[in-house]
Amino acid sequence: MDTDFDETYVLLLLADSNLPTGSFVASSGFESYGTHGFLSLSSASSAGKGLGRAATAGTVAFIQDSLHTYARSALPFVSDAHRAVDAFKAKPKIDYDATIKKLLELDELYETMTLNHVAKRASKAQGVALLTLYTKGFACPPGFSDENHLSKSLTVLIDRLKLMVRGEETHGHLPVCWGVLTGALGISLLRAQHLFLFLHARSLLSSAVRLNTIGPYSSQQLLLHSVRPLVEAEVSQNKDMRTGIFVDMHHNDADNRPATTWPLGEILAVRHDLQHSRIFNS
Question: Which of 36, 70, 136, 280 is the most buried (most CB within 10 A)?
Fold first, then answer.
């Protein structure tokens, strides 16, 4: 079987908006952003172009800032988790404990660096959903002709991680679990990074449609023309960034480590639960 076709097929599966990952109930701060009036402030420069265009401009401004901070803060964890699973697959002798230890270290660091409880809540819910998706939806069923030793080992690894999340021994944050999932499915690191940010942007546009900020046709138009260069730019800028846990990094390499770049977004996200009415969990 053509490996490029295999990877493309799995990418199509992961891009399905019907996957039970919990992203449908998360707006990543967009709902709070609009409630606090920043959507109209962001679109002030487009005020003379009509309400529709002003709302569209405000939505794109939010996506740009959100993508920038999310790529810088989360993508290194995706990358290192993906590398940990790749290393697990490459070893002739299966070592569950060493790989689990690496993933727990990444998970704990992401928990420490995530600044507000709302983002933590959404990240944990979506993360464990990805692990469940693999064990229940993507792992080879028992007795299936394509099942092999490596496939069984990956299922055991992810099932152990999922049980640790369920038992509150670790947090199960989304970026770490996404790296684990895509690594186990054989998606290349660059494709995993690209799809991770694409799905984040698409989720924001989906939230905007349900909040009646933009329409469904406008959402698709923005995803193709306005959001695409934003995603590509962030992947290009952050694809080689590391968390610093598994490699020796000089203290002057702070620019190559994860960081939050949008304090306003953090403040608005943490105020999500203070809204009088809301339709999203974050």
Answer: 70
